[in-house]
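Record Sporulation protein YtxC, 288 aa.
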Amino acid sequence: MIEFIFRQKNDALKLQQYLTKFDLQSWFHETLFQHKTHYNLTIDVSSSHNGEERLLKGTTEYILFDKCIDWAEDILRTQFYYEDAHEIEQILEIVSDMRMGERPELDQLIEKWDEHSFIRKSLDLLLDGNTPVSFDSFSTFRLKKLQLRMTEMVELAIDEYKMEQEYQMFIHMLREYLASMEKKLDTIHLYSTGFGFRFFDENMKEVSREELTAFIDKRLLTNHPLYVDSYTIAPLLSIAPDKIYVYGNGEHNLVRTLQNIFEERIELLPHHYFPETLLYRSIDIANE
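=>
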């Protein structure tokens, strides 16, 4: 038998759920110690084949996939003083994405480390004894390195959250600007070159860089020089077309931003939808 003692009832019940998944029997009960209620989980490792191995797997999964997020929330509240439930939820979602490998651009900013092996080794040492184990003390002292790692992840997630909030404000501002503009052309066709876009009007005539520059509302570049791309976003906002056709993905982040700004006005099409002869015709005209 192995016995874990918890300060929080929810922690004991969650671990019990993980152990049940590994076909381990356990019994939950409350105890009173120094006038405080504690929650005990007694686990029968002898009645199942490879019981200790099942215990290690279940407890490791509980720590990796559940307890780490609890720690992240506690770090947000106690170290960074976040109180708003919506903000906490958004930041924890980023942390969760990082832990699932869905934020590679953030994962590369933190040192690679085998969390799974670290927890297994810590538990191996712990389960050698026969006395009840305080899970909270075990977390505080044996898993300190993992908790410090969670602090690093939370810091990265906060920075990412703030950047995403700024991006959303930027998109909202540009949508409002677009709504106030009168269209200069009905339609714009954007052909991706892999390094940027070539512009064509509704008659499929290429719009030169000089013409695009003349279209640009100078207030855009004066008021927001760091955020507005003068080669693509600024001309499109200033022209304010009813419809934009984008051929090819181009720069993925830029296309995503264009979609967020122009919404239903924009349509993505594959490269081969664009008449190839027009590309060569435009090059010949430019060379004349």
